[in-house]
Specification:
single chain, about 220 residues, alpha+beta, Alpha-Beta Plaits, 2 domains, 8 helices
């Protein structure tokens, strides 16, 4: 059972709702959970109250699927999108989601024989995710012109998760395998770290000089 639990893909949603409409949010949350439970690969979903204020209440919802592919299919489910769009427009709910970065460790190159430090995994995810997001953003603005912002973000998140977890992270981790396993001299470690930070900085500089209209 421990191995099965370790292999699931987690997606975390952060919800911000008006305190006066918490009951409406609970109804929506229960309906979404019921829909998710019918999806292929569904494992578990739990909701947690993060902060309850006089005006705004914040929740966190953790959804688990057996694979990233099944999770992405759920994120792109038409009925789910319809429900979310309706509540965002009518009740002013705000939903944000992100994958569990620690979970990316399971997609590292199979060449690795040791478990890398979590900060190194996170850095490689950032190294692949940031350029992916910055490339996809202008492309989606062009190809999905006229589509609502939540729908664009949903497509963007799904594509980024798929690209980083299935292709880019395994590929880059193979290149940085010895650094991830701490099997380098101090000088080479510094060079490996510097190269990763340098690529991130380069993409940031390039994006800074591009026309604002692209974003």
């Amino acid at each position: 059972m421990a191995n099965d639990e370790a292999s699931v893909f987690e997606y975390i949603f952060e919800q911000e709702v008006r305190t006066a409409k918490v009951d409406r949010y609970y109804a929506l949350s229960d309906k979404l959970r019921e829909l998710a439970s019918k999806q292929p690969g569904f494992v578990h979903q739990e909701r947690r109250l993060v902060e309850q204020g006089p005006e705004v209440t914040r929740f966190e919802t953790l959804v688990k699927f057996d694979t990233a592919e099944h999770c992405i299919s759920w994120l792109d489910d038409p009925e789910r999108r319809r429900l979310l769009n309706a509540e965002e427009e009518q009740a002013g709910f705000v939903f944000e989601g992100h994958g569990n970065w620690e979970g990316y460790g399971r997609w590292l190159s199979r060449r690795l024989t040791k478990e890398p430090a979590k900060w190194k995994i996170n850095l490689l995810v950032l190294l692949t995710l940031f350029p992916t997001v910055m490339v996809l953003t202008p492309l989606l603005r062009i190809t999905l012109k006229g589509v609502s912002f939540p729908s664009v973000m949903l497509v963007s998140n799904a594509l980024c998760v798929a690209a980083t977890s299935w292709v880019l992270v395994p590929m880059v981790s193979g290149f940085y395998a010895r650094w991830l396993e701490d099997d380098l001299s101090r000088g080479w470690k510094a060079m490996a770290l510097g190269s990763a930070l340098g690529v991130i900085a380069l993409f940031w500089l390039i994006c800074e000089v591009l026309p604002v209209s692209l974003w």
